[in-house]
Structures are given as C-alpha cells and as structure tokens.
Write a structure and sequence with these properties.
The protein has 138 residues and is of the alpha+beta class. It has two domains: 39 residues; 93 residues, Rieske Iron-sulfur Protein. Strand 5 and strand 6 form a beta hairpin. It binds FE2/S2 (inorganic) cluster (FES). The site of FE2/S2 (inorganic) cluster has 11 residues, from loops.
Length: 138
C-alpha cells in the first residue's frame, strides 16, 4: 500500500477544488447565456367547454386575471388588470378595487375612482368548433 504524503494530499485537494469551482463557474455561465429577463407571456387561455359557463354567469378567472361574462348575446370578457400600474383587481360590492392605489371600477369596467383613468379593456373570447372557449389577451 502506498502512502500519500501530506504535501501530495494538499496538492490533490487544491487541484480538486480548482477543477470543481471551474466546472461550477462554467455551469453558471451556461445558465446565464440561457437567461431570459422577459419571458414570453401566455396570451391564449383555454377555458374549457362553453357549457361550463351558463347564461347570466360572471366568472372571475384569477389566474389570468379576467372576468368572463355570458349573456344572451354571447361571451365577453374584461381584463382584471388595473389600468393604472397593472395590479390584479379584487371584486367588491360595486365592481372591482385595486389593492395597490385604491382605484375602483364598476361592474362594467368603467373607472369610478382614480388614480386609474382608463376603463378595463375588453378581451376577445373565441368559441371554437368543438365548443371550447379560448380567451385572448391580445
Ligand atoms: S395599480 Fe391600480 S390604482 Fe395603481
């Protein structure tokens, strides 16, 4: 059995540390190259079968955020993103409130209290041939 000297052991440990830190730095660099500061946002949402939303329903879709409305004349939707600085709105008795700066919107999306100045934008709702609803943000 060969014995390893203290000096050889320290040299081996130093070299191992050197190569390991180099490999970690290389992996970090590869991850940096793949970094996307503005990942593409999803612009279409499959809401499932239209029959899930009866006439007269007003369904809040918090993951989008949006309000899906079904009336006798069909489906429509409103964005529930505040037109002031983009916070997600919360429902209240009259419509919607922004938790960020307290803008308020009525049930139809019109501004009832600033600082927001613009109404909530309508979103496009598509009814597919398979009776599925697709909500489009753009
Ligand atoms: S972001 Fe909604 S009021 Fe400012």
């Amino acid at each position: 059995m060969t014995e390893i000297s203290r000096r050889d052991f320290l040299k081996l440990a130093r070299d191992g540390f050197f190569y390991l830190s180099g490999a970690l730095a290389f992996v970090g660099f590869l991850r940096f190259l793949d970094y996307d500061p503005n990942p593409a946002q999803k612009t279409e949402f499959d809401l499932g079968l239209a029959e899930k939303y009866p006439i007269g329903s007003r369904i809040i879709l918090p993951e989008i955020p949006a309000l899906l409305i079904h009336t006798d004349s069909g489906f429509s939707a409103l964005s529930l993103t505040c037109t002031h600085l983009g916070c997600a709105l919360e429902p209240n008795a009259e419509g919607f409130t922004c938790p960020c700066h307290n803008s308020r919107f009525d049930a139809e999306g019109r501004v009832s209290h600033g600082p927001a100045a613009k109404s909530l934008p309508a979103l496009r709702v598509e009814l597919t041939a398979e009776s599925r609803l697709i909500l489009h943000l753009t």
